[in-house]
Specification:
The complex is a heterodimer of chains A (about 325) and B (about 290). Chain A has about 325 residues and is mainly α. Chain A is about 75% helix and about 0% strand. Chain A has a single domain, classed as ABC transporter involved in vitamin B12 uptake, BtuC. Chain B has helices spanning about 5-35, 40-60, 65-90, 95-115, 140-165, 165-175, 180-185, 190-210, 220-235, 240-265, 270-280, and strands at about 120-125, 130-135, 140, 215. In chain B, a hairpin with a 2-residue loop joins strand 2 and strand 3. In chain B, the strands form two sheets. Chain B has a two-stranded antiparallel sheet with strand order 1-4. Classes of the chains: A mainly alpha (about 325), B mainly alpha (about 290). Chains A and B meet through helix 5, helix 11 and helix 13 of A and helix 3, helix 4, helix 9, helix 10 and helix 11 of B.
Chain lengths: ~325, ~290
C-alpha cells in the first residue's frame, strides 16, 4: 500500500472529514482528537528530524512556546486565542530560528544538536517556572467560556475540526517536501551533509527553513493543547515527555514519510487505550511503546510505513 | 550581601554534590570515550539503581553503604547484558540508532518503574542521615561527606583500572582503534560490553552514595541526565579528569545559583553552561578535537 498516492490521500481526508458523523460517541471523537493532535506535533519533529536529519530531543520547545504564547496573550492582554494561534505559530518559528541559528551557525550536528535542543528546552522550562507572566510554577488556567469565537467548543466535534485542519495543513506541508526540490535538498542533507554542501546546497539556510517550519507546526499543536485542556504549566510545556512523544510517533510510524506521524500516533493511542481498558495502570502503555521503538530501530528502520512500502518494492522486483 | 560562612557552606555543599555528579558523569564519559555513543538511558539506569538501594534497605535492611558491594557488581552485569543483548545487537553500528535505542530503553525503564513502584517520592529513613560534621566554619551532613570521599576513591580506582591493568589497556586500545585492536586479538564486542558495564556500575555506586541524602521517583533520571551530559560536555567527551573537574564546577554552579538566584531560577546555570560550552567549545575543557 502506498499511502502517498493522491487517491489514498483524498479518500483518507474524506474519511477524516466525515468521521464525526460516523463515530457517534464523544469518547471515540475525543480519541480521534488526541490521535490527530499527536500526529500534528509529530509532523513538527518529522520535518526537522525525519526529512532534514536533525534529531531534536527538545522539540517540546515549539509546543510549549505555542501553548504559552496564546495563553499569555489571552490572560494578560485579553487577546483572542484565534489570534493567539497565529501569534503562537509565529513565535514557534521564531524560537526555531533562534535555536537553529545558534546551533547551525556553530556547526552542531548529530548528537550535539540533540543535546543542545534538550538544554534549550530545560532553560525555557526553568524560565517559565520562574517569571510572573507565565504564572510561574502554578501554570495558567484559562477560564471556561465556551464559544467558537473563543476557541472553546461545547462538544468535541468543534475541537475535532480545528485539529483536523491543523493536521491537514501539516500533512500538506510534508507532502510538499516529498515532491519538491526543497524536500529533496533536505533529504540530501540528511543522507550526507558534507556531500550536500559540496554540491552547492546552502545547508545552513535549508536547515533554518526546516527548523522554522517545524517550530510553527509544533506551536500550533501547543496552542491547541492549551485551548483543549484549558491549562498549561512549565513541566507540560517544556518537559521531556512531549519531546519524546513527538519523536516516538514519527519514528514508529516511519520518519521521513508523510504518513509516519499519523500511523505512529494511531498505534500509540490505540495501545494506550487498550492497556488502560484492561489494566488501569499508568506507564504500562509507554513500556509497550518503548519496546516497539527498540524493536523498530532494530528490525524496521523505516518504521511501520516503511514496512508496508518495502514489501511492495520487493514484490515489484 | 552574604556572610562568608554562608558562601563557604554553599561552596562545600557544591563540592559534595559535585563529587556524586562526577561519578554519574564518569560512567557516561567512559561509555562515550570507548563506544562513541551517547547513552541516553543513563538517567533511567541511575533511577533503577536508586530503587535497588531503596528496596535493599527497606525489604532486607541492608545499609546503603554495604549495598555498594551488591549493587556495583549487579549493575555491571546488567550493563554488560544490556549491551550484549540489546544495544550492540540492534543498533547495526549506527550512532543515531544507539541514541534512539537508549532513549527507548529509558522510556521502558521509567514507565516500568512508574507501573511497579508508583509515582510517589521515596526516601530512606536512616539514623545517621542528619548527623552533622564540622568542616571549618561550615556544617555538612555525614552522608554527604562520605559520598564525597567515596566518589573520589571510586574515581581514582577507575583511573587506576584504566591506566594500569591489562583490561584498561584493552579498553583504551579499542577506544583508539577498533580494527587494530581486533587484529591484536582483542575481543572488541566483549570490551564494548565491559566498558558499558563499568559505566553502569558507576551508576550503581552513585546510587548507593546518593540515597542516604536524596530521594527517588521514577522520573528522577531526567534531573541527572541533563546534569551528567552537561558535565561530560563541559569536561570534554571521554575525558576522565574532565568529568571530575566538570562535576565540581557544576556542583558549585548549582549551589551558588540557588543561593544568588533563588530556588527556581538558580537551576538555569546548568543548561546555560551546557548551551554555552556546546556553542563555543564543544570539545570541552579537557577534550581533544575529534
Amino acid at each position: 500500500m502506498n499511502f502517498q498516492k493522491p487517491s489514498w490521500m483524498i479518500l483518507g481526508t474524506l474519511i477524516l472529514v466525515l468521521l464525526p458523523w460516523i463515530l457517534f460517541s464523544e469518547f471515540l471523537i475525543s480519541f480521534a482528537v488526541i490521535v490527530l493532535y499527536s500526529a500534528t506535533i509529530g509532523h513538527s519533529w518529522n520535518i526537522l528530524g525525519g526529512y532534514a536529519g536533525q534529531f531534536s530531543f527538545g522539540s517540546v520547545l515549539f509546543f510549549g512556546t505555542g501553548a504559552y504564547t496564546s495563553s499569555v496573550l489571552q490572560m494578560n492582554f485579553g487577546i483572542n486565542p484565534w489570534i493567539g494561534l497565529i501569534a503562537g505559530i509565529l513565535m514557534g518559528a521564531l524560537v526555531g530560528a533562534f535555536v537553529g541559528f545558534l546551533s547551525f551557525r556553530f556547526g552542531l550536528r548529530g548528537s550535539y544538536f540533540a543535546l543542545i535542543t534538550l538544554a534549550f528546552a530545560e532553560a525555557f522550562r526553568i524560565i517559565a517556572n520562574t517569571v510572573e507572566f507565565t504564572g510561574a510554577g502554578m501554570g495558567i488556567y484559562i477560564p471556561l467560556d465556551q464559544h467558537p469565537l473563543n476557541f472553546q467548543f461545547e462538544g468535541r466535534t468543534g475541537f475535532y475540526y480545528v485539529i483536523l485542519a491543523l493536521f491537514l495543513i501539516a500533512t500538506a506541508i510534508t507532502l510538499k517536501l516529498e515532491n519538491s526540490r526543497f524536500g529533496s535538498r533536505l533529504k540530501a542533507i540528511r543522507e550526507n551533509e558534507d556531500a550536500a554542501e559540496a554540491l552547492g546546497i546552502n545547508t545552513f539556510r535549508l536547515k533554518m527553513q526546516a527548523i522554522m517550519i517545524s517550530g510553527g507546526i509544533g506551536a500550533s499543536g501547543g496552542t491547541f493543547y492549551a485551548q483543549y485542556y484549558l491549562y498549561i504549566d512549565p513541566s507540560i510545556a517544556y518537559g521531556v515527555d512531549k519531546s519524546v512523544e513527538m519523536l516516538l510517533v514519527s519514528i514508529i510510524g516511519g520518519m521521513g514519510t508523510v504518513m509516519g506521524p499519523f500511523i505512529g500516533s494511531l498505534v500509540l493511542h490505540l495501545i494506550n487505550e487498550i492497556s488502560r481498558h484492561f489494566i488501569n495502570a499508568p506507564g504500562l502503555s509507554l513500556v509497550v511503546y518503548g519496546v516497539i521503538l527498540v524493536l523498530i530501530i532494530g528490525f524496521l528502520p523505516k518504521g511501520l510505513t516503511g514496512a508496508f512500502q518495502s514489501q511492495k518494492k520487493v514484490k515489484r522486483a | 550581601m552574604f556572610e562568608p560562612v554562608i558562601l563557604v557552606t554553599a561552596l562545600i555543599n557544591g563540592l559534595m554534590f559535585g563529587a556524586i555528579y562526577a561519578l554519574v558523569a564518569l560512567g557516561l564519559t567512559l561509555i562515550y570515550g570507548v563506544l562513541h555513543i551517547i547513552n541516553f538511558a543513563h538517567g533511567a539506569l541511575l533511577m533503577l539503581a536508586m530503587y535497588a538501594v531503596y528496596f535493599l534497605f527497606n525489604l532486607l535492611g541492608i545499609d546503603p553503604y554495604l549495598a555498594l558491594l551488591l549493587v556495583i557488581p549487579s549493575f555491571f552485569v546488567l550493563g554488560y547484558l544490556l549491551y550484549r543483548g540489546i544495544i550492540g545487537k540492534l543498533a547495526h553500528g549506527q550512532d543515531q540508532n544507539i541514541l534512539l535505542i537508549t532513549l527507548g530503553l529509558s522510556v521502558i525503564f521509567e514507565n516500568a518503574a512508574l507501573f511497579f513502584f508508583k509515582a510517589d517520592t521515596q526516601t530512606l529513613n536512616l539514623d545517621y542521615a542528619y548527623e552533622m560534621i564540622e568542616i571549618g566554619p561550615a556544617l555538612v551532613t555525614l552522608p554527604k561527606l562520605i559520598s564525597f570521599g567515596a566518589s573520589i576513591v571510586i574515581g581514582l580506582a577507575l583511573w587506576l583500572l584504566m591506566a594500569k591493568t591489562d583490561l584498561g589497556k584493552a579498553i583504551r586500545a579499542v577506544a583508539k582503534e577498533r580494527v587494530g585492536a581486533r587484529l591484536m586479538g582483542i575481543n572488541v564486542d566483549h570490551i564494548f560490553a565491559v566498558s558499558y558495564g563499568i559505566g553502569i556500575a558507576c551508576l550503581g555506586a552513585a546510587a548507593c552514595l546518593l540515597m542516604p541524602s536524596f530521594y527517588v521517583t521514577p522520573t528522577i533520571g531526567h534531573v541527572f541526565v541533563i546534569i551528567a551530559f552537561t558535565i561530560v560536555v563541559l569536561g570534554g567527551m571521554g575525558s576522565f579528569i574532565g568529568a571530575l573537574v566538570g562535576g565540581f564546577i557544576i556542583g558549585i554552579t548549582e549551589s551558588f545559583g540557588g543561593l544568588f538566584l533563588g530556588e527556581s531560577l538558580g537551576q538555569i546555570g546548568i543548561p546555560l553552561i551546557f548551551v554555552l560550552i556546546l556553542l563555543f567549545r564543544p570539545t570541552g575543557l579537557f577534550g581533544v578535537k575529534a
